[in-house]
Amino acid sequence: MEKVQVQNWFGDITSFPQVIVEPESVQEISDIMRDAQRYPGSVRAIGSNHSTTACGATDGGTLVNMRKMNRIKEIRSDTVTVEAGALYIDVARELRKRNMQFYINVVIGNLTMGSAACCGTKDASMPGESGQVCSYVTELKLVKSSGELMTITAERDPELLQAVRSSYGLLGIVYEVTFKIRPLQSLAVYHKAYHLDQFAQQLPELKIANVSLMFYIYPFLDRITAECRKYNPDANPQRATHWQWTVRNYLWRKLSPSYAFLVSRYIPLAPLRSFLLAAFNRTVIAISALALRGRNTLPMDQQIHFSEQQHLSKFTFSFWAFPEENYIETLRAYFQFCQQYHRQTGYRPDMPTVAYRVNADDSSLFSYSSHGTVITIDPVSTGNKGWEEFLVAYNQFCSQHGGIPLFNQTKSLSDEQVRQAFADRIQKFEHYRSDFDPAGRLLNRYFRTFFGQKQKVEV
């Protein structure tokens, strides 16, 4: 096959693989791994290609698209086993038919199960639970770079599974995963709006209110909206309402990015752009606080199936997580950073920043909450002019404030920033990687910035 161009969902990362393969069986994946002449390295597996970094890119190598391996193999009383290419939202809908659900119902429903098992994800933690999907993996099957098949379980291989849960395909291509599931429960949701000083005063109470916390942050309005969720055991999920999440998802999936895109690109005067964005955001804040609430909704209704064909409503984002105990100080500094950056450069992200409170969790080696509960700061943008330069400055700010990034959601990372965040975990992962992939066949240009730096040429 001639070298072709492949872009991620947003369209800002381009890969030029020499070969693209869509396997339908594990034997095909094993054959790809064994035949380096026909399927040159680096070999990278992708699902929906929704990442905001080049973690799934390969130039001159082999791109393995896993979407055809999408079967749900078995649903039991407390687990579901699926092939890696199945979409998270599709599996959630099947579970719902059986009055079951995932522990975590991430917004990006296009997430594939293989990516969910070995890449970084985020969601506001429910009380006493994790916010990272990979934490609920109990068994995982992969094909190593040698073509050998391997099964890894939480019971037999806890330390190895910890590494594989955040391996990003560098230890092998995941082809089948088993996740923990639970009985379907009704979900209560409501929104509260704060000014920054009010939020600083109320955050301690929010943290002990036995709710999950997602935030919409408006640095240029001095406002924060908290989205609070908790299970409601007294409600009957068979009588749940759906309109709350339909409205919320429409705002997030369609209306907000489309409006921001049009304002950013077709309003030439910066003061007018700022006025229009502020007016729209104030309206959204009011609608959320007054109307988007319900005592009996369903957890999976939060998920969105993002169309791969959208244009106006596409958006991108970045990610850093910060220790909860210093979060208000960090958030104040972030507001100041955004405002100062705007004064100096004229640039501002054209969509709200979002944030998630994620409980302490060391289930994966590169967990961003391994040392304690964190709250994230995730700028969102339609990719308006200046976004790429903003991310470089934003990364510097976050690293200086003790932030932890994600390899698949934090663009423009430097090796220094990664090593500051993960320290000795890099060395520990390299031990596993050199054992599973000694020739670096799975290591692409992006990951060579952080791993395997003694290997200079892709094989």
Topology, element by element:
Elements: E1 6-7, E2 14-15, E3 19-21, H1 26-34, E4 43-46, E5 62-65, E6 72-75, E7 79-83, H2 88-97, E8 100-102, H3 113-118, E9 137-143, E10 149-153, H4 158-164, E11 173-183, E12 187-195, H5 196-207, E13 212-218, E14 223-231, H6 243-266, H7 270-291, E15 294-297, E16 316-317, E17 321-323, H8 327-345, E18 353-358, E19 374-376, E20 380-381, H9 387-400, H10 415-422, H11 424-436, H12 445-448
Parallel strand pairs: 3-5, 4-5
Antiparallel strand pairs: 1-2, 6-7, 7-11, 8-11, 9-10, 9-11, 12-14, 12-15, 13-14, 13-18, 16-20, 17-19, 18-19
Helix pairs in contact: 6-7
The CA-CA distance between the termini, in Å, is 18 Å
**What is the number of strand segments?**
20
Radius of gyration from the CA trace?
A: 21 Å
Biggest sheet architecture: 7 strands, antiparallel
Helix content: 25-40%
User: Structural class, from helix and strand content?
Assistant: alpha+beta
